[in-house]
Amino acid sequence: MKIKATYLRKYRTQPTKVDGITTKPSVLVFVYAIKGTPEQLAKFKAVKGENYREDKDTKDALFFSQRFAGVEAEIILNKKETDWNIGNEEMELLANLTAQYGIEVASKMLAEMPK
Questions:
Q1: What does the pLDDT average to over 39-68?
Q2: What rounded mean pLDDT belongs to the chain?
Q3: How many other C-beta atoms can be found within 10 angstroms of the C-beta atom of residue 102?
Q4: DSSP tally for the chain: helices H, then strands E
Q5: What is the pLDDT of residues 3-24, one digit of tens each?
Q6: What is the SS3 assignment for 54?
Q7: What is the mean pLDDT of residues 83-106?
Q8: What's the whole-model pTM score?
Q9: E strands, the chain, where?
Q10: Which DSSP letter does residue 67 get?
Q11: pLDDT tens for residues 23-48?
């Protein structure tokens, strides 16, 4: 199952310190609004469980990631239906092709692929 996600904002978490020593550095988090059918949103909410969050103003379901997935993205339910992940197939293809052939050829090859 796939759901559309739209980038909203980002924030940085506070580092964790114990006795003045940083034990966990701050992390950049990207926030996405989730838009889908009632069935998709119900599944998203059920899988997220106690970690489910909504925007206080729009009431849109929210998805949080440490990886930026673009302004428009998809999130995908994993095979075990235990979590949602960014659907970054196109980015992974671009990165792999760029490493092999350079960005010009990679961009052309990706543009020619069927959607």
A1: 94
A2: 88
A3: 10
A4: 3, 7
A5: 999 999 999 998 888 887 878 8
A6: strand
A7: 83
A8: 0.76
A9: 2-12, 16-18, 21-24, 28-35, 61-65, 72-77, 84-86
A10: S
A11: 888 999 999 999 999 999 999 999 99
The answer to whether residues 65 and 32 touch, using CB atoms and an 8 Å cutoff, is: yes
CA 41 centroid distance within chain: 16
CA 111/CA 28 separation, integer angstroms: 30
CA distance 45 to 31: 16
Alpha-carbon span 41 to 115, nearest angstrom: 24
| Structure tokens belonging to residue 47 | 């899988």
Q: Which residues 6+ apart lie within 8 Å of 33 measured at CB? A: 5, 6, 8, 55, 58, 60, 61, 62, 63
DSSP 1: -
Q: Rounded distance, CA 44 to CA 83, Å?
A: 9
Largest CA-CA distance found in the chain, in angstroms, rounded = 56
